[in-house]
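step: validate -> pass
step: tokenize input -> pass
step: predict -> running
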Amino acid sequence: MSIMRAAYASTFDADDPLAALVVGDRPEPAHPEPDWVTVEVRASSLNHHDVWSLRGVGLAADRLPMILGCDAAGVDPGGNDVVIYPVIPDPADPRGLSLLSERHPGTLAERVAVPRANLVPKPSGLSFAEAACLPTAWLTAYRMLTTRGRVDAGESVLVQGAGGGVATAAVMLAVALGKRVYATSRHPGKRERIAALGATALEPGARLPERVDVVIETVGAATFDHSLKSAAPGARIVVSGATAGYEPPVNLRRVFAMQLEILGSTMGTPAELAELLGLLVRRGIRPVIDGTYPFAEARTAFARLLSGDVFGKVVLEHTA
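step: predict -> pass
step: emit ->
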């Protein structure tokens, strides 16, 4: 049996997710359907989704060991540079879909198998490391702003908890789209970096100079009341995460009086990923990378992600 190097969840550990991580040998990826192909991974990036998997959230025990990772860029069997779209149709899942590393082995490996339709051409202007940052965090931010948030119909955006992958991407994309952008962070250093990206950086809960048309929410209970108070009449509050609590109190009087929309958003489509790639190339935008690590140092990269000091994406580079 052919084997490859991979980073995978061997068990679950809610208190110490690194204890559940193994970097070692796994079987070559299988093709569950005839239309699947194997991609040689050149770069991958980490997400908090991987940490939740190690904690045992969203990943069933009967699927262990599971190769982690949703994001990657690499080379397809025809020698083409590609970005991997990580969403797989899954009728058995209540969402109708699953992400790589939930039911099918993920991208933190030398090779990954995906449906051929999940391959999006990588523009030559983006490196493999840059492209590997995009399929989850950046695609999520892009869909939140455009398809769900209808930012083209607004002038101002609030991004809560900037510093993480989705929120940082949302700041950069909203600035690139010509919007007035406000972003919050608890960390003074991160506020400085947010300001350098073109946003007005604020402490959490700070009063904004104006009410905004779109709010990007990935924090949850800790910021949701502020999001409601900062929303202009008819604003869209778009939610894709709840890292600081998923059951916030909601002032319904404000929701109906201001005619607010509270919208959920998850990932995006292959067409939106292609649009995102095109936008980055046209505008000269490149994702913020917190750090790049050789694949052999995957455990160190995970420790960095868990540190809480990350600004942007943590990337693994795979040797050719």
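step: describe -> Residues 149 and 280 are 19 Å apart (CA to CA).
step: cleanup -> pass
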